[in-house]
Write a structure and sequence with these properties.
Strand content: under 5%
Structural class: mainly alpha
Shape: elongated
Helix content: 55-70%
Radius of gyration: 33 Å
Length: 144
């Protein structure tokens, strides 16, 4: 399809209604000082209120730097709690596959929004070590 020429706003006819559609009636805007001009403005204000509410909700979901830091500290605390449980199980000699599975799950679940490459490396190492220890434990159980 070839587009020869585009028409500008003047081609469709102005508000004076000089060019009427084939249906016989034309679209006319009310005068600026007409009594009904306040109605559309009030309705537009309601739409703006909804749009600003959506914007506020979006900003609340993002959170600021303090909110991100609080969430990061919470994620780190959960991982450290699981590592502490695993440490106690190692000391007691009661390491089970459920301990290691739990550690791997927690590390995977807590990876969201990690923006630090160094932290990603540490989480990778923890997950890899847990997988190796789980494989060793499963191999020992099969041999026994």
């Amino acid at each position: 399809m070839k587009v020869g020429r585009t028409s500008g706003p003047a081609a469709g006819g102005g508000p004076s209604g000089t060019r009427a559609p084939a249906g016989g009636s034309s679209f006319n805007l009310p005068a600026a000082n007409a009594a009904g001009s306040a109605g559309p403005t009030a309705r537009a204000g309601g739409v703006t209120g909804v749009a600003s509410l959506d914007a506020l909700l979006a900003l609340q979901e993002m959170g600021g730097p303090l909110e991100r830091r609080r969430k990061a500290v919470g994620r780190a605390g959960r991982i450290l709690d699981v590592l502490d449980e695993l440490k106690m199980a190692v000391i007691d000699g009661e390491v089970s596959s459920s301990h290691l599975d739990h550690l791997m799950r927690v590390v995977r679940d807590q990876r969201e929004n990690t923006e630090d490459a160094g932290l990603e490396g540490v989480l990778d190492e923890i997950e890899m070590r847990a997988a190796v220890e789980l494989a060793k434990l499963q191999r020992a159980n099969v041999a026994a």
